[in-house]
Design a protein that fits this description.
about 110 residues; Recoverin, domain 1; about 0% strand; 6 helices; mainly alpha; single chain; globular
């Protein structure tokens, strides 16, 4: 397995263990590939749930920019719920996992598939 495949397996395990979600591996792979080389950089591969500017970047760049959603309070609420479910004490909140969950939540799988 190459390094990307190892990371995708890690993300899949994270989805199953922390969120009780059996991932669609094709979608998870495409979300991960969409993140490009950032998945190999520890700081860029994770999202800081306590940094408002980081959460705003998720909303602006991913939800609005990539998924084409309208800027409403629902976006902030959904991000906050995922961060809470991930756990405050969990320092490794993987960006690919968060983006995967957001894609599912807003039924935007068609952006990737």
């Amino acid at each position: 397995m190459n390094q990307r495949e190892v990371l995708i397996q890690r993300y899949a395990a994270e989805l199953q263990e922390k969120f009780n979600v059996k991932p669609n591996m094709e979608l998870l792979t495409k979300v991960t590939i969409g993140l490009g080389p950032s998945i190999y950089k520890p700081d860029a591969a994770t999202v800081s749930g306590s940094d408002p500017s980081e959460l705003n970047r998720v909303k602006t760049n991913f939800l609005i920019g990539k998924l084409g959603l309208e800027d409403t309070s629902v976006l902030d609420t959904t991000i906050a719920k995922i961060m809470e479910a991930y756990g405050q004490s969990n320092r490794n909140k993987y960006r690919a996992v968060i983006y995967y969950l957001l894609t599912l939540h807003f039924n935007k799988e068609s952006v990737y598939l």
